Amino acid sequence: MPPTPLGPALPPHLAAEPSEHFPTSASYELKGHEGPVYAVRFNSQGTYCLSCGKDRTLRLWNPHTGRLVKTYTGHGYDVRDVTVTKDNSKFASCGGDKQVFVWDVGSGKIIRKLRGHDAPINAITQGAGDEVLVTGSYDQAVKVWDCRSRSFDPVQVMTDASDSVTSVTTNTAGGRAEVAAASVDGGVRRYDIRMGCLFTDALHVPVTHLAASRDGAMLLAACMDSCIRLLDRAEGDLLMEFRGHKHASTRIECCLSPTDAHVFGASEDGRVCIWDLASGEMVESHQAHSDSVCSMALHPEGSTLCTSSVDGLIKVWV
């Protein structure tokens, strides 16, 4: 499908087309989960990855050897998302339990539980520093948690969405303190935490995932009309649309390459699609799974891609 450039021009540093490696050769299949694997995430160095799924477990893998390192149990319901601290000592998970579990990586123990949502928690991410967490829930709320506090209550609650919050991301570039949240109501909401301001971009179609560019200037939004939209984060302008994949009924993800030159998108038909960000053209599409691709994680250097699927597998691509 032809690219759809919209709105202002892209930033000048993206006008060129740098040569970038596409990890499309299968390296390992990571087996162990029973049922859909909802999320896979690299640690900050890209040495390990964590996965979580419908089977209520989290698993730590070495994706470079295909080895399962550790399995974490404690959730009573499905686990929908996970985020790892930058120092790799802890991670936090969320799901159908309606609470956040904070884990010690080495011991495998749950060191804290944060309660406050009234429905399953769909998304979690790190805020500024390793002690701040941001969550988005089916209860339509975005909540900010300070793990240094003795209180178990969130320090901030945003209830502007009119439907389930599906994805949250933070922007701390240049000293910013910004949270962006996507919702089934079709809104992408950007909160300036310090200034107490809310900016809403109405896309008029359910949004299941957000991904930020390296400099925080752009947001990718995976929308349920089989379109990934690129937004200017400051103004909310629509910069580009990427099409050619299938996304109509499930929560799937997208991401940017480490140089921001390419867009990676999951597809409900099991494919992984790659587009050139500047031109909007699809440059690669390969069959990754036998069922819908739920999640994807790019190595910090872009050399390796991990994908997870409804088919119960995690695959490593180099």
TrEMBL record:
GO cellular component: catalytic step 2 spliceosome; cytoplasm
A biological-process GO annotation: mRNA splicing, via spliceosome
Keywords, comma-separated and alphabetical: Cytoplasm, Repeat, WD repeat
UniProt-annotated location(s): Cytoplasm
Keyword Secreted in record: no
Positions of the Leucine-rich repeat and WD repeat-containing protein 1 WD domain: 143-284
This protein's record includes keyword Repeat: yes
WD repeat extents: 30-71, 72-113, 114-146, 244-285, 286-318
Record-linked Gene3D superfamilies: YVTN repeat-like/Quinoprotein amine dehydrogenase
Xref: SUPFAM superfamilies: WD40 repeat-like
InterPro entries: WD40/YVTN_repeat-like_dom_sf, WD40_PAC1, WD40_repeat_CS, WD40_repeat_dom_sf, WD40_rpt, WD_LRWD1, WD_repeat_MORG1
Family to which the UniProt record says this protein belongs: Belongs to the WD repeat MORG1 family.
Protein name as it appears in the record: WD repeat domain-containing protein 83
Species the sequence originates in: Auxenochlorella protothecoides
